[in-house]
Structure formats: structure tokens, C-alpha cells
Design a protein that fits this description.
The structure holds 2 protein chains of 2 kinds. The C terminus of chain A is likely disordered. Chain A is of the alpha/beta class. The relative contact order of chain A is 0.12. Chain A has 3 domains: 78 residues, ATPase, nucleotide binding domain (Nucleotidyltransferase, domain 5, 2-Layer Sandwich), CATH 3.30.420; 132 residues, 3-Layer(aba) Sandwich (Rossmann fold); 189 residues, no CATH class. By secondary structure, chain B is an alpha/beta fold. Chain B has a single domain, classed as Rossmann fold. The C terminus of chain B is likely disordered. The chains are: A alpha/beta, B alpha/beta. The interface between A and B is medium-sized, with 25 and 23 residues.
């Protein structure tokens, strides 16, 4: 048999997925706790032996892994203006599968440096200034970074007129510097791909080693990418297809998790009519956002608070439009305490509704932040709309993944909380997409498989990612 | 290095024709033009000017609410660290038949360096830009507006 083993070294669990490459079938999946602190191969061997019980397969023709273990890939970024070069830098880092632990704009201060030194990132992305634009700030910031004691690779992707000086400044102080083309060469143009690529190559060449993930080396052919990048690659493949086979068209993947809720989209989002005027930076077609305050386990109380305020229901979020509608504030408080003490807890039937409300609120907020907005203005020429970010109202497909959604008994209903809502007409969320679910949790695996055979990965996704939606009535999605 | 100009129509104003003509004329003249288009907020003018290290901000307004829309722009530039940037305003800046001298005074008081009435040709603005940015001397000594 010609089979591939696909591995995700997650922050909590090491997941394995076995694929028959001839019949293009998933043979089985399994997981075991990640053991990155001792030896990452222990957890892998355990997951592998569980998998072997169901598949009986001992040898694989390909064994590929992705990783978000040991804190994933952390990036700090700096730019000149928050809504311009810093935003572009954030998007580039997220698109490479990193998490952005801090963003700085304008001049780095001494207290910023203390923050950087206290929790140094895996990579620092130094941006700022359009080509020929502001150069003082990126040069100042390079000088500040050069004086730090903790070392990490620095990717420079700012004003090309300042790049030489920045590189010399940092290299003469002994820093590892990678110079990329400017992330924002002109105000209305982004160049994100080169930064994206260099971040991933640094991840492969040194971060996996620094975090001890390469200890699994003898059991696998390689750690190819950060896990979020594998998921994003799968999303791109499923949307766009291959040269031989068409894809599913524009789509959004919503990955609800215990620590974060991620949203990936492959969609243009800028097909606008005459009464719409575009503002702000033009976002890339392939976009990823990470909500670090929307993990359904580690941020449960934040989720309740955020949505509570939004729906006018006070802390409990039990107002008439709230996700926690009808729930007793005291009961919610007790459940939150329980989760706070044991984030790994899985609630039984009686408390499932609370868990679903958390998940609904998380996907609602995460998708809302991912999508663009309309601002209606009455001008002497009639109503005009200012659009910032991407318009997803016409999107065809959303796909749910991640434990809380995959294990949900009615994920279509939970996911519908993220759709367009007539009560928030300014938020350009999908109106009537088909709702699908990654039931076997294979997206990361297909992103990995795509690196050796995109056609097989595409066909397996088309089989395994299943439609679960009925048509949703407009404006009544909570 | 070419001088960089940030250009846009401020407020809820959607008049785009003059904006396109100005962009074209300024480009021909060799300026590096960052055109923000129509319905541009004060913050967008400032962000663009900071990021591109612009030499001037050129604000157009055709629909009569220019005075409201432009109020405080100079102060915000000062806050953003670009208080000395050259700032022009032009167009149909206020509603009604206010004499241009009065309009000009109001905008100069708001911190604009030059103010242009409706019907000004692009070349007039360009001549002033060249002078104010120290690019070349112009023979007519500035002329009247």
C-alpha cells in the first residue's frame, strides 16, 4: 500500500492522519499529548501506535509534519502608521502562519524594548515607510533593536531607501538580518509574499531546531511549515483547485480552538458597485486573522464579557439578543470558574448549551473582525458607502474546523452565528454561504499532502469536507 | 528626489473629476502623487503623509462643507509630528456667495499655506508648489489669486 502519514505537533495534542494515496481515502486519525518539553518523538510514537491499531500500517512512503508546538511561531512587528505599514506587517506574519505577539508603530521606546526583551519573539519584522517615504522611523527602530541583548532574526521589509542603512546598523551589531522588498512599496500596494516566504524559511531553518521539534527528525521526513500555514494552504487549494481540476471557489475557514479562534479566507472581496468607495489598505485575497482573546477555553470569561457588552445584556450576555440569552448570570459565573480552573474540561449534556453559546460568540466576533465594514454617508449626491476591508456578503462557502465545532452536535446552527445579520448591516459578513464541516479534522493534513500531491489532497478534501447547511433566513442568525 | 504630494477630496464629497485632472497634471510635472481619491478623512490625509514622508498635503472640496471638514487639520498634523508640512486647499470651499478674500482668510487662519478659488487651473497651483518647495523660481513673483 502506498500511504502517507501526516502529523500536526499541536500545542496540546500531537495529531496524526493516515492517508491511502492510491484510493485517496483517509485510513484513520489519532492523537496523543504533545511532549515537546521532554522529547517530542514520545508523543508522536504514542499517537502513531494508537493509529496503528486502527490502520495496521507500519510503514509510510511519506511522513510530513507541521507544528504549532512550543508556542508556535511568534512574531513581533513594527511599522510607521498603525493602520498602514504595521497593519501590512501583521497581515504578512499571520499569512505565514505566525502569531503576532506585539505590534509597535512610530518610534520604539525604551519601555517597548523592555517588553521585547522580556518576551523575545522568534522573529522580528521591521517595516515602515513607503519606498522613498519615511525613513527616520525604521532607522531609529533598527538602532534601538541593535542594542538589545536577546538575539532573534530580524526581517527588514520597509522603505527601500532606508534598507541599506538598517541592514548595516543591525549586522554590525551582530544581528541576523534578512532584507525583503518593502511590504508597502506604495500606499495603495502591498507586497506580502516575499516576507511570508522568508518567515517560513526561517521557521524551517532554525526555529524548529530551537524549539526541539526537529528531534522527531528520524521518524519523519520533515517539519514543513507552521500548522496555521498548512491549514491556509489547504484552504487555498480547495478554493482554487489545481490546473487539472477546479476548486470550490471563494471560501472561509473558521477554526475555533481552546486558545484562539482563527479565520482564513480565500476571496477577493472587492467587487464593488458605483456607490461604494474603497478606503484603507487593500487586503490580500488570501487572508488570515487570529483572535487571541476568542479561545473558547482560555478566554471564556472574555468572550462572555465582550458579547455581553455588545448585546446590552450586562456581564452575563443574557440580553434578548445575547448568545447567553435565557441563562442565569450566576450559573454562567460558576461555569466560568469551572473552565478557568480546568481549561481542558469537556462539559456533559446538561452544560452543552453554555459551551455552544461560547463557541457561537467566539465565531461571531472572530468573523466580524475578519470581515470588512461599510460606513454609510449621506452626501449631496445621495447615499455613498465607504468600504474598509473585504466584503464577504457574496461568499459561497464557509468551513468549520477545530475541536469545538467538529464535536458540536449541530455545527451548522453554531456557525450560523457568524453570518450577516440585519441588525449589524455595517459588518460585511457572508449572507448565505453553504456551511461545511471538516468532520475528521484533516485540513492541516491536506495542506501538508498538497506539498507532494495537490491533486490527491484536493480530491480527498472534496470527499471528506461535507456540507451541513440548510438555507439560512436573512437577519435571524443568532 | 521627487517631491511627494498627498492629494484628496475631503469629507463626504464625491467629486472625482477635478481630483483626477489634478493627479494627471501633477504627475506630468514630475511630482510623486499619492492620490487618496474622494471622501477622505483628516486622519487618512495625515497617515498617508506620515508614511510617505510627504512634502505637501493638497485638499480639495467642491460641495460647500470644506470649512467644517478642514477645521483642525493643521493641529492634527502638529500632533502627528508633521506640523510644518505645506498645506493647500482649493475648490468651492464654502456654501453661498461669500467673497473669496474672506474664504481665503478663514482657511489661512486654519493653518493652510495657500487657498485657491473655483476655476483655478492646475498650472497655477503647480507654480506655487514649485516656489514653496524650492524647486525653481517663477518669474511672476506669485501673482494674485
Amino acid at each position: 500500500m502506498n500511504a502517507a502519514l501526516l502529523i500536526d505537533f499541536g500545542s496540546t495534542f500531537t495529531k496524526v492522519c493516515s492517508v491511502d494515496l492510491d484510493s485517496e481515502m483517509i485510513l484513520g486519525t489519532a492523537q496523543a499529548p504533545t511532549t515537546v518539553r521532554t522529547d517530542i518523538s514520545i508523543g508522536l510514537k504514542e499517537a502513531f501506535s494508537i493509529l496503528k491499531e486502527t490502520t495496521g500500517i507500519e510503514t509510510y512512503t511519506a511522513r510530513l509534519a507541521c507544528s504549532s508546538a512550543a508556542g508556535g511561531l511568534s512574531v513581533m512587528a513594527s511599522g510607521v502608521v498603525e493602520s498602514l505599514t504595521l497593519k501590512a506587517a501583521r497581515m504578512a506574519a499571520l499569512g505565514a502562519g505566525a502569531k503576532v505577539t506585539r505590534g509597535f508603530h512610530h518610534y520604539l521606546t525604551n519601555s517597548d524594548l523592555k517588553i521585547i526583551e522580556a518576551e523575545p519573539p522568534d522573529i522580528f519584522l521591521l517595516a515602515g515607510g513607503t519606498d522613498g517615504g519615511n525613513s527616520e522611523i525604521i532607522i531609529h527602530n533598527a538602532g534601538k533593536l541593535a542594542g538589545l541583548k536577546r538575539a532573534f532574526p530580524i526581517v527588514v521589509a520597509g522603505n527601500r531607501a532606508a534598507a541599506d542603512e538598517v541592514q548595516t546598523l543591525l549586522e554590525s551589531a551582530g544581528w541576523e538580518v534578512h532584507v525583503c522588498p518593502n511590504i508597502m512599496p506604495e500606499l495603495d500596494r502591498l507586497d506580502i509574499d516575499p516576507v511570508n516566504e522568508i518567515i517560513r524559511s526561517i521557521f524551517l531553518s532554525r526555529i524548529t531546531h530551537a524549539k526541539g521539534i526537529d528531534k522527531a527528525g528520524e521518524f519523519i521526513d520533515g517539519v514543513l511549515m507552521p500548522t496555521p500555514y498548512a491549514v491556509l494552504s489547504a484552504a487555498v487549494l480547495l478554493a482554487d483547485g489545481t490546473e487539472e481540476e477546479s476548486g470550490a471557489g471563494g471560501l472561509m475557514v473558521i477554526d475555533a480552538g481552546g486558545a484562539t479562534t482563527d479565520v482564513h479566507s480565500v476571496y477577493d472581496g472587492y467587487e464593488v458597485s458605483d456607490d461604494v468607495i474603497l478606503h484603507g489598505i487593500r487586503e490580500p485575497r488570501i487572508k488570515r486573522t487570529v483572535e487571541g482573546d476568542m479561545g473558547v477555553r482560555y478566554n471564556a470569561s472574555t468572550i462572555v464579557e465582550t458579547t455581553g457588552k455588545e448585546s446590552g445584556g450586562g456581564l452575563s450576555g443574557s440580553g434578548k439578543n445575547g448568545f447567553f440569552q435565557g441563562m442565569d448570570a450566576r450559573e454562567i459565573g460558576e461555569l466560568l470558574l469551572e473552565i478557568g480552573g480546568h481549561p481542558e474540561i469537556l462539559f456533559g449534556d446538561s452544560k452543552k448549551e453554555f459551551d455552544r453559546a461560547l463557541c457561537k460568540a467566539a465565531v461571531h466576533t472572530a468573523v466580524k473582525r475578519h470581515c470588512g465594514t461599510y460606513e454609510k454617508h449621506y452626501t449631496p449626491h445621495g447615499a455613498r458607502y465607504l468600504q474598509q476591508g473585504k466584503d464577504f456578503t457574496g461568499l459561497g462557502t464557509i468551513i468549520g474546523t477545530g475541536g469545538p465545532l467538529v464535536n458540536d452536535s449541530n455545527p451548522a446552527e453554531t456557525l450560523s452565528a457568524c453570518l450577516f445579520d440585519g441588525r449589524e448591516p455595517d459588518s460585511l459578513r457572508p449572507r448565505k454561504p453553504e456551511i461545511m464541516i471538516d468532520k475528521k479534522y484533516i485540513l492541516y493534513a491536506m495542506g501538508l499532502l498538497a506539498s507532494i500531491d495537490a491533486g490527491k489532497a484536493l480530491r480527498i478534501m472534496k470527499k471528506e469536507i461535507i456540507k451541513i447547511s440548510q438555507e439560512q433566513p436573512d437577519g435571524n442568525n443568532r | 528626489m521627487n517631491k511627494t504630494l498627498v492629494l484628496g477630496v475631503i469629507g463626504a464629497d464625491v467629486h472625482s473629476v477635478g481630483n483626477k485632472i489634478l493627479e494627471y497634471a501633477l504627475n506630468l510635472e514630475g511630482f510623486n502623487v499619492v492620490n487618496l481619491g474622494v471622501m477622505v478623512s483628516q486622519q487618512e490625509f495625515i497617515d498617508a503623509a506620515v508614511e510617505t514622508a510627504a512634502d505637501a498635503i493638497l485638499v480639495s472640496s467642491l460641495y460647500g462643507h470644506g470649512e467644517l471638514d478642514c477645521k483642525g487639520l493643521r493641529e492634527k498634523c502638529e500632533e502627528a509630528g508633521i506640523g510644518n508640512i505645506l498645506m493647500y486647499a482649493g475648490g468651492n470651499l464654502v456654501v453661498g456667495k461669500t467673497p473669496f478674500e474672506e474664504v481665503e482668510k478663514r482657511f489661512l487662519d486654519m493653518g493652510f499655506d495657500r487657498v485657491f478659488p473655483p476655476g483655478t487651473l492646475p498650472q497655477t497651483g503647480i507654480d506655487f508648489l514649485r516656489k514653496d518647495l524650492g524647486l525653481a523660481n517663477i518669474s511672476d513673483g506669485g501673482g494674485s489669486l
